From TrEMBL:
It comes from Plakobranchus ocellatus. The keyword DNA-binding does not apply. Its main location: membrane. Residues 1-60 are annotated as: Disordered. This is Interferon-induced transmembrane protein. GO terms for cellular component: membrane.
Length: 164
């Protein structure tokens, strides 16, 4: 209780600043009016050239409205295979060409999303060609590696052993 009284009264030695009426901390409603305040209005002002509406004007305005629905010309959805799976497989056979195949497959997917079917088809065909090239080069490289690493040394060792 003593704390509540202390909070409401200024500490001893301090007084209310001169020129201000004593308040309880909140401004009185309607006590402050800003200078050059805008006049109170019920809403936005009418735009220039606008006639106030009457019941007759409202009926006339609604009767003159015509809504026309024009059909939107669009291509029917087409299915274009983006060849992403074969591009990912080609990545394991030949990394560099496989990366380009994946990029083209993603391009095809994005073009398909934008409904640009001719670009999607073109990018898809490029991705497929790159993926096949990567797989062929990978198979040739693996075959050559197996031949040079395993079969050729066996042939050389057997020919040297046969000469002794």
């Amino acid at each position: 209780m003593e704390m509540e009284n202390r909070a409401a009264q200024p500490e001893p030695g301090y007084s209310q600043p001169p020129g201000y009426p004593p308040t309880d901390g909140y401004p009185q409603p309607g006590a402050y009016s800003p200078p050059n305040a805008y006049p109170q209005s019920s809403g936005y002002p009418q735009p220039p050239g606008y006639e106030p509406t009457s019941e007759h004007n409202k009926q006339q305005a609604t009767s003159n409205i015509t809504i026309v629905h024009a059909p939107v010309a669009s291509e029917p959805e087409q299915h274009v295979d983006d060849n992403m799976i074969i591009s990912i497989v080609s990545l394991f056979c030949c990394c560099i060409i496989g990366i380009f195949a994946i990029i083209k497959a993603q391009e095809s997917k994005e073009s398909l999303r934008r409904r640009e079917y001719s670009k999607a088809r073109e990018a898809s065909q490029t991705a497929k060609k790159l993926a096949i090239a990567a797989i062929v080069l990978g198979v040739i490289g693996i075959s050559l590696g197996i031949f040079l690493g395993v079969i050729l040394p066996l042939i050389l060792v057997s020919s040297v052993a046969a000469s002794y």
